[in-house]
Amino acid sequence: MSTEAAPRNDQNFVHLHVHTEYSMLDGAARIGDLFSEAARMGMPALATTDHGYVFGAYEFWKKAQGTGVKPIIGVEAYITPGTHRTDRTKVSWGDGGRDDISGSGAYTHMTMLAQNNEGMHNLFRMSSIASLDQVYTKWPRIDRELLSTYGKGLIVTTGCPSSEIQTKLRFGMYDEAREVAGELRDIFGNENVYVELMDHGLDIERRTQKDLIRLARDLKLPLVATNDLHYTRAEDAKAHAALLCVQSGSTLMDPNRFKFDADDFYLKSAQEMRHLWRELPEACDNTLLIAERCEVSFTEGEGRYMPRFPCPEGEDETSWFIKEVETGLQRRFPEGVPDYARKQAAFEEDVIVSKGYPGYFLVVADFINWAKRNGIRVGPGRGSGAGSMCAYAMGITDLDPVPHGLIFERFLNPERMSMPDFDVDFDERRRGEVIKYVTEKYGSERVAQIVTYGTIKAKQAVKDASRVMGHPFAVGEQLTKAMPPDVMGKGVPLSEIYNPEHKRYNEGVDFRALVQTETHFQEVVDTAKGLEGLKRQWGVHAAGVIMSSEPLVDVIPIMKRLQDGQVITQFDYPSCESLGLVKMDFLGLRNLTILDDAIENIKVNRDEDIDLDALSKDMSDKATYDLLGRGDTLGVFQLDGGGMRALLRLMQPDNFEDISAALALYRPGPMGVNAHTNFALRKNGKQELIPLDPQLKGKLQQEMIDALDPILG
Question: Is the per-residue pLDDT at 196 higher than 80?
Answer without folding.
Answer: yes
